[in-house]
């Protein structure tokens, strides 16, 4: 009697099944599962992020003023100049952005021997706010008071003998501080020197 030998088709089916199992085990989809799809479709609040950034910038500028004497925490040469230009109007030096209202002015009252200044800030709630004027080598101090104008404007007067004012004429830049307000870092040009020379020199 001949031995019962399985037909070749039987072995073929076994080989094919083993190959399919091996391919399934090595499939990339099985080895590296896909990342889960984000289901949270709520919009990102970009406006809130922009507000936070703006507030941080404003606070950073205020922090440049030392709390004890208003002196800038950094050297004047390291600070960015306030955006704007000087122009003369009726003997006063005025500073502000192009084609806009002046944000700072200074002039001389020769009869009183005083330098007077105005700045576009509101000090009505405070009554008065400490003022500091700084150059690289010297400083002057006083107070801002409400100018009693329809616009929020503060004004200050400093005696021409106040230390630091004469130094402005020989400087490239100077800083004007108001307690709790952003620091102004202003370039010195001929308009500024003319005001200083009239009162101080």
TrEMBL record:
Q: Which PROSITE patterns match?
A: PROKAR_LIPOPROTEIN
Q: Does the keyword Signal apply?
A: yes
Which region ranges are annotated with the description Disordered? 28-59
UniProt keyword list = Signal
Q: Which residues form the signal peptide?
A: 1-31
Compositional bias segments (type: Basic and acidic residues): 29-38
Q: Which domain of life is it from?
A: Bacteria
- Write the protein's name: Uncharacterized protein
Q: Which organism is it from?
A: Henriciella barbarensis
